[in-house]
Every structure is written in C-alpha cells, then in structure tokens.
Amino acid sequence: MKNILLVEDEFIIARMIENHLENMGFTSNQIAMSGEQALEAFEKDNFDLLLVDIKLNGELDGIETVERIRLQSPVPIIYLSGNSDQQTFERSKKTQPVDYLLKPIKMDKLQESIQKALGVGKK
Fold first, then answer.
1. pTM value?
2. Strands 3-7 and 49-53, sheet pairing
C-alpha cells in the first residue's frame, strides 16, 4: 500500500482530495496542515508521495518545506497551488516536482499525476 502525505491547510480541500485518494484505492494517507507538521510527519513515517500546497499557514511555505525534505529524501512531489505566477513556478522547479497542478484541482489530472509519480496504472 502506498503511503501519501497531503500538505494542505484548507480543510475542505484536504478532505476532498483525501476522499479522492480513497476512491483511487490509497487508504494510508495523512494530512499535515502546515509545513512544520509535514516535516514532523516526514520524520516519523516513510511516504511514497507528497501532495503539497504552496501557500501554507505557519512559517514555511510548501516550497521551503519540500526543500528541507529534499535534504533527506528524493520522494516524489506534486504541488497543488492557487499561484500561477512565474516566480513561484520557477522556485518550485528547483525542487524537481513530478507535477504542478493549479487550483481548483481537477481530480482526473490529479489521478494522472499520482499514477505517473508512483508508476502505477489506472485503478
């Protein structure tokens, strides 16, 4: 079973994505509401994939969180963001994400990105 960490500070969006992950057959998922919570969760568990919002509550944004995680692991990253500006996109590219999805998230596109990141076929 694949272990996915969702880093999203908007509860409704987090629940919607979590439900979609469950429908895809991924049941071992965790939600972190801040970059700090994500780092704490990452220290305690091994994840196969991180879905990371860029704008987060707390001191760290999603890109800074991933930069710290990248010091420890090459885990696949998919960014979820409402930011479409070029500067944010260029910052994110330095962390080598699998994908950068703009909100509102299209669930079919999220599913394709997850399958690409994990190397799995359609469920």
1. 0.94
2. parallel
**Residue-wise pLDDT tens digits, 83-117:** 889 999 999 999 999 999 999 999 999 999 999 99
What CA–CA distance (Å, rounded) separates 114 from 111?
5
* Cβ neighbours of residue 62 closer than 8 Å, sequence gap 6 or more: 7, 35, 52, 53, 54, 55, 56, 79, 81
The tokens of 54 are what?
């860029």
Other beta carbons less than 10 A from residue 11's beta carbon = 10
Tell me the C-alpha distance between 20 and 78, whole Å: 15
Mean per-residue pLDDT for 1-5? 90
Nearest to 34 by CA among 57, 4, 55, 11: 57
Nearest to 27 by CA among 123, 113, 97: 123
Looking at the chain, how many residues does it have?
Answer: 123
Strand partners, 78: 51, 99
